[in-house]
């Protein structure tokens, strides 16, 4: 980046920060909230996910299974033992693998 542009950016940042601090001192709630959201861990915006997963036991259709296998192949994850075409649906111990079987 050009040195003059970089120094100009630093100057504008200093002016903006100074104005923000002035607004906070004047009890500007928007400025206070902005500062807290960006500088205080307790006020960082979060997304809370609260759900129940009920589809764990549903089997994939043959078409869905084909899509998943192709995606894994393309992502090179199939070689890590996840129903790799090279192991013909068998796990490392030679037993049939069933990704929808939740028994342990």
Helices and strands, with pairings:
Elements: H1 3-25, H2 29-39, H3 62-74
In short:
The chain has about 100 residues and is mainly α.
Characterise the protein shown here.
With 104 residues, the chain is mainly alpha-helical. It has two domains: 3-43; 60-99, no CATH class. 45% of the residues lie in helices and 0% in strands. The longest helix has 23 residues, at 3-25. Residues 87-104 have low confidence and may be disordered.
**Coarse shape:** elongated
Q: Tell me what portion of residues adopts beta-strand conformation.
A: under 5%
Query: Overall mean pLDDT score?
Result: 78
How much helical structure, as a percent, in the residues? 40-55%
Computed CA radius of gyration, to the nearest angstrom: 27 Å
Structure summary, number of beta strands:
0
Largest sheet: none
Secondary-structure element series = HHH
| Gap from first CA to last CA | 57 Å
By helix and strand content, what is the structural category? mainly alpha
- Given the structure, what is the number of helices? 3
Poorly predicted ranges: 87-104
């Amino acid at each position: 980046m050009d040195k003059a542009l970089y120094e100009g950016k630093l100057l504008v940042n200093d002016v903006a920060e100074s104005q923000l601090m002035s607004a906070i001192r004047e009890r500007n709630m928007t400025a206070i909230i902005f500062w807290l959201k960006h500088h205080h861990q307790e006020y960082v915006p979060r997304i809370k996910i609260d759900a129940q997963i009920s589809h764990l036991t549903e089997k994939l259709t043959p078409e869905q299974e084909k899509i998943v296998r192709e995606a894994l192949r393309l992502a090179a994850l199939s070689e890590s033992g996840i129903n790799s075409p090279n192991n013909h649906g068998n796990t490392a111990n030679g037993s049939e693998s069933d990704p929808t079987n939740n028994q342990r």
